[in-house]
Amino acid sequence: MFSKTKRAAILIAASALLATSLGGNIAYADTVNTGDSTSETTSTPTNTTSNNSNVSTATNSNSDTNNQVVNPTTKTDSSTTTNSTTNNSATTQAAYSKINVAAVRSAMFAELNRLRAQNGLSALTSVAELNNYAQSRTDGFTHTGVDNHAGWNSANMYPYYMDAEENIAQMPYSMLGTTDPTVIAEKITHEFYSEMYDPEPNYGHRKNMLNPYIDFVGIGVSISSTGMVYFSQEMGNNQASHSKYNASDIYAYYLTNENDYANVSKYDIADASREKNPDYTARDNYKTVDIRGGVTTKNQRTTLYDRNGNKRVDLSLAPNTSWQSDIIAIIDGGYYYHVCTDGFVSANDALPWASFLSGSTVTATKKSKIYDDNGVYTGHSVSPRSAWIIDRRATNPLTGVKMYRIGTNAWLQQNELTIN
């Protein structure tokens, strides 16, 4: 449901620190072979994220980073009769036709700035040029569906075309379940923030919304005849706004798009279920960032630490085992992956990975070497033009190049493949 291409006191310091301290130490993956290979390397990926083929979101910035699109499978009830389907469609159509699009646009603008305020960022200013472009984008989607930014052209955002970004999405009325503009705005902002349906785990939408070096925004909302609702956030600067920011700060923030984890941030709607859990509660010398992934221990028993950075004597992790993680905790300047209640693994003691949603694939562009979990060439290769399902991404700890797992303990490097 996403596409290709993509500081607040704490945000400034922490995002820059993450970019330099963790940038070369993230992401591993497992997959099923869908093409020819000179090495029999296959495994079935697992996915715990719920999918919906009707939900699609995409983020874009003036970068060459990849942010994928997902169209997951949705189950349908084959026993549904034609009459009930017709009646349900008529009822749904009557409901979504009552959505006040202008009110939704206003609510989305307000919710975006409410999110920014929670993170100590200044409010964005709505301008006609960006609103018009955003609306033209979503109007076009009613005929084509979300286009993964194929039709995006920042020149059309002039004079706010500098440092330009785009977030786009589609969501059916059946999932929105309401005509209330405020609730709709909260739901789409929550999705942009949490990226529950984005196959690539780099939180590009959130980073766009919380970009401290953007001043202007436009919002588009359109509804198709089938009840699919399309959303667009077009963000950018004019020359005056661009010039007031330090170029190195803009670039440092841009580099966080290469990280497979979020920057330090908060959003009350997304964080509601965590607010009473001390593992997720910010305090002095303790901050957290979201990650969709986990860690694999090295060939030794791995120490666990508590949320205060103290070694736990009652628990440790077995060698060569994988553990899911939902946050990275920054404890007194050290980086730890959360694997259980009050249980954290040091980033130095494990191999971190980030998870793709099921269905993401890559194609080898040449006879591509296969690397193991530790980044060592295995002596095996895959054939040129062979396609592979991926479910995790990591940075090769030896070469610093991102790599994608195509099987258990088997990876291809990014410089020898294309992401489909």
Walkthrough of the structure:
- The chain is an alpha+beta fold and 420 residues long.
- Helix content is 25%, strand content 29%.
- The chain has helices at residues 9-21, 82-96, 101-118, 128-144, 173-176, 181-194, 204-209, 239-244, 247-255, 268-271; strands at 56-61, 125-126, 162-172, 216-223, 228-237, 286-297, 302-305, 311-317, 322-331, 334-340, 343-346, 350-355, 361-364, 368-371, 377-382, 387-389, 392-395, 402-407, 410-413, 417-419.
- An eight-stranded antiparallel sheet has the order 11-10-9-6-12-17-18-19, with no helix packed on it. It has a five-stranded mixed sheet with strand order 1-3-5-4-2. It has a three-stranded antiparallel sheet with strand order 16-13-20, with no helix packed on it.
- β4 and β5 (228-237) form a beta hairpin.
- α3 (101-118) crosses α6 (181-194).
- The radius of gyration is 22 Å and the shape is globular.
- The two termini are 13 Å apart.
- 46% of the residues are buried.
Helix and strand topology:
Layout: H1 9-21, E1 56-61, H2 82-96, H3 101-118, E2 125-126, H4 128-144, E3 162-172, H5 173-176, H6 181-194, H7 204-209, E4 216-223, E5 228-237, H8 239-244, H9 247-255, H10 268-271, E6 286-297, E7 302-305, E8 311-317, E9 322-331, E10 334-340, E11 343-346, E12 350-355, E13 361-364, E14 368-371, E15 377-382, E16 387-389, E17 392-395, E18 402-407, E19 410-413, E20 417-419
Parallel strand pairs: 2-4
Antiparallel strand pairs: 1-3, 3-5, 4-5, 6-9, 6-12, 7-8, 9-10, 10-11, 12-17, 13-16, 13-20, 14-15, 17-18, 18-19
